[in-house]
Amino acid sequence: MAQGFDPAAATAAYLATLPPEVHAKATAYTQGGHWVLLWTAVVSVLVSWIVLKTGVLVRIRAGIEKSKPRPWLAVLAVLLVDGIIEGLLSLPWDAYARWWREKDYGFTDQPFPGWLTEHFMQMAIGIVTALIVFSLLYWLIRRTPRTWWLWAGIASTAFSIIFFIVGLFLIEPLFNTYKPAPPGPVRDEVVAMAKQVGMPSNKILIYNGSKQSNRYTANAGGIFGYGRVAMSDVMFKKDADLAEVKGVVGHEMGHYVRKHILIGAVFQGLVAIVGLFLVSRLFGWAAGVLGAKGVTGIADPAGFPVISIIITVLSLLATPITNTFSRWVEADADHFSVVHFNEPDGLAKALVKTLEYRADSPSKLEEFIFYDHPSVRSRVRAMMDWKATHPKSEAPPPAATPAPAAPEAASPSK
Asked: Of all helices (H) and strands (E), which one includes residue 274?
């Protein structure tokens, strides 16, 4: 351990670089987000129930199959109508949770018309995705009524990889402009980093992430030998130094090199198998409780809102499990970054900039249930523990920002 270096004190010094009112605002935003998670599920259940009770999907299915069974056409028609109705009914809540709240806290400068345009684009993509996925799901239900949940869960692993690739090449460019990073020290350093860890180095990009969000971020996407590094322009607007870039980009490269996409797809498949098995067992009971009149069984696409409600509830209940997996992945990427590029201070400085929208020190229970990343305090402490045993320089930790005499009140929790 470096003589005289105290990881706990260094962690506290990093967290103290932001004044108390910023921490208070981050806590209000983060804890308000827990309620947003709950109310989003409630809105989803309510909207699906409204569609179910109107009977419109039953009438559509019955009309299509009036003369002869046409299950494929019935599924497509029902899913299309359901997607449009539910999307429109959910719009007010989505506008609040995804735009107004973000703008109120200062995390986006995007005008509402721009957000609304992108929202409808995402809605259209979601409907097309649902048409593909659930058409095959209903086919499996018809062909293998006892074990469809197993085959569908296994298929979800492949689907998640396919949709990741489609998103990378076709969907993300619809929302942002990706350009090669200009020549200079940042690009040269990132290229060298990619070569060091065996990642393709010919796709080093910058995108206009500030169009949607003021959050400090980057990503390294790729699979099966294709890889790219994409850095949001926010990183450079917030004056990121080279050590920060190395720390953050090293983390993102960790996701690629450590094959987190593939591991995540397998994990998602296992979760899907369990979830769909429960759907198969709960559908009849839920249909009765929800008053699904005219729905003939789980193979009837008019009962799709019932499936949607069950999945929504199960997903909410599974939040601690999925978040635990996500935290493991993120911690592994942090470790990869510091092991391969040894920039604990660079990553720590970058993490502190995310404190604007992440409460740094949640309780263990709060972190277990709600956090899909380890808390900033624990991540910075991990960097300082590494620095203590792998000293590179004797640079002192940052000085704390003096607290103002009368800090302004934080924004209320939303």
From this structure: helix 260-290
- Using alpha carbons, list the distances in angstroms from residue 168 to 57, 178, 224, 226: 34, 11, 13, 11
pTM for this entry: 0.88
Check: CB of residue 142 under 8 Å from CB of residue 174: no
On the question of pLDDT at 404 being above 60, the answer is no
SS3 258: coil
How does 215-254 read in b/e, with b if 16+ C-beta sit within 10 Å? bbbbbbbbeeeebbbbbbbbbeebebeebbbbbbbbbbbb
Q: Which of 117-121, 166-170, 396-400 has the lowest mean pLDDT?
A: 396-400
CA dihedral sign, ordered 62, 65, 69, 75: negative
How far is the C-alpha of 398 from the C-alpha of 391, rounded, in Å? 16
Q: Tell how far CA 227 is from the center of its chain.
A: 20
Count the residues in the chain: 414
Phi, psi of 191 (to 5 degrees): -60, -45
